[in-house]
Specification:
Number of helices: 3
Oligomer: single chain
Strand order of the largest sheet: 1-2
Radius of gyration: 21 Å
Order of helices and strands: EHHEH
Shape: elongated
């Protein structure tokens, strides 16, 4: 996999107008970045595999995945405890 960086100036150039929807979201940012990468490939800067930035992003994404697993585990544990106290707590809605 090739890792590249889209400089902020290029992202601002790629953002030509409003993206549908309300507010700023990661999905909108991702759309703008992907659209810029598609339409302005010469603005992308390659990042080497040994770069500290790539290693930091890898560690952050692994940490995010661990947090998601922990959150799911805790939610399931809380639901199980609530059901043991009150079986009707999570009945059909």
């Amino acid at each position: 996999m090739r890792v590249v960086d889209l400089p902020a100036r290029a992202a601002d150039t790629a953002f030509r107008g409003p993206v549908p929807g309300n507010g700023k979201t990661d999905a909108k940012d991702a759309f703008i970045i992907v659209d810029a990468a598609r339409t302005l490939p010469d603005t992308l800067l390659p990042i080497g595999k040994a770069c500290d930035l790539v290693e930091g992003l890898r560690m952050l994404s692994e940490f995010d995945a661990d947090l998601a697993v922990d959150e799911n585990r805790l939610i399931n544990r809380l639901r199980s405890m609530l059901l043991s106290v009150n079986p009707w707590a999570y009945g059909p809605v």
